[in-house]
Design goal:
The chain has a six-stranded mixed beta sheet with strand order 3-2-4-1-5-6. The protein is an alpha/beta fold. It is globular. Helices cover 40% and strands 15% of the residues. The two termini are 27 Å apart. Helix 4 crosses helix 5 and helix 6 packs across helix 7. It catalyses: (2R)-2-phosphoglycerate = (2R)-3-phosphoglycerate.
């Protein structure tokens, strides 16, 4: 058995609450999001988890979530690496729009395709495949080697960047990945084998 990889999607953001496409825009957490992040930290503490290093994105909502989790774990000074490779999918021209307004502008079917297809990007933005194309190399070069050395690695990021990682870890295909929803503030704890395959996967539900 090698190390442990913990994935946490940020708590509810101000734009999640307003039903806006967020992408690379940078709203912070709501009060509920703060509570979700703290609860995630409490669940990890109850499991006896002590990360050796943390990774997060360039965006405030993920960084704030991470700091709240580390506060609950009593590890405020933990080495943390921030990189935009872990940013949320870029929604391009949809960013900042209410999802209902986007449906009025482009039609429900088209917006559904942009949101739920694997490889069709919105105008000026990224598809899930595009997101994976920057997440996967970063995971392989920066995160996975640490896990395989036996470290416990915490990653606080976003729904689509974490779905990209889950696609690799859980061996999902381009169809099954579309069904995967990652809830805000619910840690997913993977224990990896020495060959980087998954030995166990546990979701810490609220």
């Amino acid at each position: 058995m090698s190390g442990t990889l913990i994935l946490v999607r940020h708590g509810q953001s101000e734009w999640n609450l307003k039903n806006l496409f967020t992408g690379w825009r940078d709203p912070d957490l709501t009060e509920k999001g703060v509570e979700e992040a703290k609860a995630a930290g409490q669940r990890l503490k109850a499991l006896g988890v002590k990360p050796d290093i943390a990774f997060t994105s360039d965006l405030t909502r993920a960084q704030h979530t991470l700091s709240l989790i580390l506060g609950e774990l009593g590890q405020e000074g933990l080495e943390t690496i921030r990189d935009q490779a872990l940013n949320e999918r870029d929604y391009g021209d949809l960013s900042g729009l209410n999802k209902d307004d986007a449906r009025e502008k482009w039609g429900e079917e088209q917006v559904h395709i942009w949101r739920r297809s694997y490889d069709v990007p919105p105008p000026g933005g990224e598809s899930l495949r595009d997101t994976g194309a920057r997440v996967w190399p970063y995971y392989m070069t920066e995160i996975l080697p640490r896990v395989l050395r036996g470290e416990t690695v915490l990653v606080a990021a976003h729904g689509n960047s974490l779905r990209s990682l889950a696609m690799v870890l859980d061996r999902l295909n381009t169809e099954t990945i579309l069904q995967l929803e990652i809830a805000t503030g619910e840690p997913i704890v993977y224990r990896l084998n020495a060959d980087s395959t998954v030995a166990s996967r546990e979701v810490l539900h609220g």
